[in-house]
Amino acid sequence: MCAKRCEREGQRFGRLVVEEFAGKTSKSQSIWNCRCDCGNTKMVKNGDLVSGHTKSCGCLAREILSERKTTHGHSKNGKVSKELNCWMSMIKRCERLYDKGYFNYGGRGITVCEKWHKFENFYEDMGSCPPGMTLERIDNDGNYCKENCKWATRVEQQNNRRSIKWIEYKGEIKNLTQWSKVLDINISTLRHRLYMYGWSVEKTFNTPTNRVRITERDSGGKFLKVTYV
């Protein structure tokens, strides 16, 4: 027993360093007198040291709690600011396998720069989020960092989605939704022409849409003949 006690003495567990054997519990578990890095001493059961359940005299937990409450001031009475919420969502979708957005972010290699793993640094770089905006990456295939992020409107975000297809026509580049408005052609018609029928952009944009004209009906109102103009 003396040999085992000597082996444990001097060992470090988190912020605690074992100084001496202090006795046993009613269940014969060893108790050790430990000195914390902050200078305090604490008696800790052997199982709590080995499992990592106890890593300090209690100062570590107090520091973490204090940081959560006072460091950034973006969490009060159970409510978080928009900036903190954006930051937490960014971390989760890039690094938490269980997050529903992980597949499209962390799952395809999108990462958060080391500096931004601390909220205060993220907030220092990005500042307050303007009304109606949210966090956006400039390069949709790039990582989250100061150089590749900005506060953007929902419309800007939608235009930057990977699924958006950009089409150049007569020197202008727009997505299909924007071309639909400019040409006054239903977006479904444009999609069918381009991706189902394989039409060229020129033919797709310059072919007038067909307007249906009913020329004959039966007595019950059923269409007998339809012509297109």
Describe the structure.
- It is built from nine helices and twelve strands.
- By secondary structure, the chain is an alpha+beta fold.
- It has three domains: 61 residues, no CATH class; 85 residues, no CATH class; 65 residues, no CATH class.
- The strands form five sheets. The protein has a four-stranded antiparallel β-sheet with strand order 1-2-3-4.
- The C terminus is likely disordered.
Helicity range of the residues? Answer: 25-40%
Uncertain runs: 223-229
Give the class from helix and strand content and strand pairing: alpha+beta
Gap between N and C termini: 100 Å
Main features:
single chain, 229 residues, alpha+beta, 3 domains, four-stranded antiparallel β-sheet, 12 strands, disordered C terminus
